Amino acid sequence: MSKNDALRALREARYAANSARVSTPPRPVAGAAQPAKRAAPAAAAKPASAPPMASEESCGHRNMSGRTCTRERGHAAKSHRYN
């Protein structure tokens, strides 16, 4: 058996295993966490006495490495400052 034949056999075996795994429905795991129920948005939100200030909110833009922009929301600068 040549090297290419061995690689082809491995590739076909991997394809067969993946297709068999995809065709069967996932089994529920015993003791798995159930999705959390949503709380009332008004009760769990910020207190009404402290209105959000625009200067405290950050831009929130993320770069490719996952860093977040630290400038204020809606900044006029074309560049972002990542932290």
TrEMBL record:
Name of this protein: Uncharacterized protein
Biased composition (Low complexity): 29-54
Chain intervals for the UniProt region annotation (Disordered): 15-83
Organism, as annotated: Nocardioides jejuensis
